[in-house]
Design a protein that fits this description.
Helix content is 51%, strand content 10%. It is mainly alpha-helical and 137 residues long. It has two domains: 5-56, no CATH class; 59-128. The protein has a two-stranded antiparallel ribbon. A two-stranded antiparallel ribbon has the order 3-4. Helix 2 (59-93) crosses helix 4. It binds zinc ion. Residues 29-31, 33, 45, 47-48, 50 line the site of zinc ion. Zinc ion (ZN) binds next to loops.
């Protein structure tokens, strides 16, 4: 008898920790069906019933991939956030020239630095499409 979906969705006390915003792993079954699960979880193909276990992926490889994604996000989002945190109070307390400075620096970051980061992290984005060969159970 198949379990109703609510029971399938696991109880919150099961102790599985989900890290925030980890990219799910896309699994393409031998039969062509596509599924997506978080790292470490099993996925069973609805069409042919094969079970795929993402914990077969070496943790080191998966963490390296995640680190690349995180570093990219940090480099893109971090500097404008830091600049804003410093310059907005100055603009309020000292003068509007700091707001102008913030505007110029954030624009410069977006127009000059981000494209460079993007170019340099083409390696990281190809890592994002890394595929592993899993064996069905
Ligand atoms: Zn299948």
């Amino acid at each position: 008898m198949p379990l109703p979906p609510r029971q399938m969705a696991a109880d919150p006390t099961s102790g599985t920790i989900h890290f925030m915003r980890e990219p799910p792993i896309t699994i393409t079954c031998d039969c062509g069906a596509v599924g997506s699960v978080p790292y470490g979880e099993r996925w069973q193909c609805e069409q042919c019933g094969k079970a795929w276990d993402t914990s077969q992926i070496p943790l080191a490889e998966y963490s390296a991939l995640l680190a690349g994604v995180r570093r990219y996000r940090l480099l893109v989002v971090g500097p404008p956030a830091v600049l804003a945190a410093i310059l907005i109070p100055l603009a309020v307390l000292v003068g509007l020239q700091y707001a102008f400075l913030l505007f110029v620096l954030v624009m410069a970051h977006g127009l000059l630095i981000v494209p460079q980061i993007r170019r340099r992290t083409t390696a990281a984005s190809s890592a994002r499409s890394t595929s592993w060969k899993l064996s069905p159970e």
